[in-house]
Amino acid sequence: MSNPNEIHLRYGMNPHQKEAKIYSENGNLPLRVVNGDPGFINLLDALNSYQLARELRLATGLPAAASFKHVSPAGAAVYAPLSPELAKAYFVEGLELSPLATAYARARGADRMSSFGDCAALSDIVDASTARLLKREVSDLVVAPGYTEEALEILRSKKKGGFLVLEIDPEYVAAPIEKRNLFGMTLEQQRNNAVIDSSVLTHIVTNNKELPEEAKRDMLIALITLKYTQSNSICYTLDGQTIGIGAGQQSRIHCTRLAGDKTDRWFLRQHPAALAMKFRAGITRPEQNNAIDLWLEEEVTSFENASWEQYFEEVPVRLTREEKREWLNKLQGVTFGSDAFLPFRDNLDRASRSGVKYVVQAGSSMRDEEVVQAANDYNMVMTYSGVRLFHH
């Protein structure tokens, strides 16, 4: 059993960084290793992702989940029923999913390629349904406020008993001042305790001021996700979940393009041609994911060149650019969130191609007038949150 004040880790950021631990200078750690052997990056992902899931739960009142990779979310979601098309696209067709399991299916389904080997964060006590879903996916660890006995039994059997299971105290409140050591020096700042709720959505600056409750929910999901995404960052949301996240780019338009491309790919995976694909027996879900992703790549001229035809009973005909555009034109009602102000209208020009109707950003750019005009050109509803959410 680990010391309640200190947990020694496998290694630091990399295997050659042998000395690594997590400890508390003020009382016991609010974190417990239930199963497995954590590393440094595991804990970075776990502590960031749990905060995201917890804040989504507090903001919406719904079970929430996040799928984290390399200290940024691949996806985040709250509970909302899955359509048959989404269930199939998320590889959970026919499964009995609890609300918490559904939230995780949505979070992971947002970007299944990026969620490969993820850290799963759950807002509620993990039940057997969620544990069974976790067991069947390629995932490295889970963090939650607790687990049922049945769920623990399922999770302990994953990865030959080595699956990392972390339990965190849901009542834990971090100190108001946080410190970070860098290059032998200590930086100190007030924690980002900005509360993201409906009060930050009231400053609507566009001609169109019709902001339905579903869009407000999706704005909250976007902002809370951005709060724990490496900056610069952009997030597209729809139907209670993220559908495209652009993280850590030096230019905001590159974040917008990256997140928009992921959004388009998310929707294209629901195209009837994608849902009708027939894979050969024994093909794993990650292999199916990779095959679908390759099928969507425009620069790939044939499956033969990449040897992906082996995964299909019948190699599917690839969609033309015109067919893709026709399908993407059906994507509507998307919310677009930015972790800071939008410096140029090009962000909304790109966002408009991915069905964006609602925009939430910090505001106070030198070109606010130009950006508001762009939103009006597309009949978008845009609100200024007044809160910058950089995270590094």
How many domains, in number, for the residues? 3
Low-confidence stretches: none
**Second rung of CATH, namely the architecture of the largest domain:** 3-Layer(aba) Sandwich
Structural category = alpha/beta
Number of strands: 16
Oligomer: single chain
SSE ordering: EEEHEEHHEHEHEEEEHEEHHHHHEHEHE
Distance between the termini: 32 Å
Tally of separate helices: 13
Strand order of the largest sheet: 3-8-7-6-4-5
Secondary structure: elements and pairs:
Elements: E1 6-8, E2 21-23, E3 31-35, H1 40-60, E4 64-69, E5 72-78, H2 84-89, H3 99-109, E6 118-122, H4 128-136, E7 139-144, H5 149-156, E8 164-168, E9 177-182, E10 185-190, E11 203-204, H6 213-227, E12 233-238, E13 241-247, H7 252-268, H8 272-275, H9 285-296, H10 303-306, H11 321-328, E14 334-338, H12 346-351, E15 356-361, H13 368-377, E16 381-384
Parallel strand pairs: 6-7, 7-8, 14-15, 15-16
Antiparallel strand pairs: 1-2, 3-8, 4-5, 4-6, 9-10, 11-16, 12-13, 12-14
Question: What can you see in these coordinates?
Answer:
The chain has 392 residues and is of the alpha/beta class. The protein has 13 helices and 16 strands. It has helices spanning 40-60, 84-89, 99-109, 128-136, 149-156, 213-227, 252-268, 272-275, 285-296, 303-306, 321-328, 346-351, 368-377; strands at 6-8, 21-23, 31-35, 64-69, 72-78, 118-122, 139-144, 164-168, 177-182, 185-190, 203-204, 233-238, 241-247, 334-338, 356-361, 381-384. The strands form 4 sheets. It has a 6-stranded mixed beta sheet. A 6-stranded mixed beta sheet has the order 11-16-15-14-12-13, sandwiched between helices. The longest helix is centred in the N-terminal third of the chain and has 21 residues, at 40-60. The protein is globular, with a radius of gyration of 21 Å. The two termini are 32 Å apart.
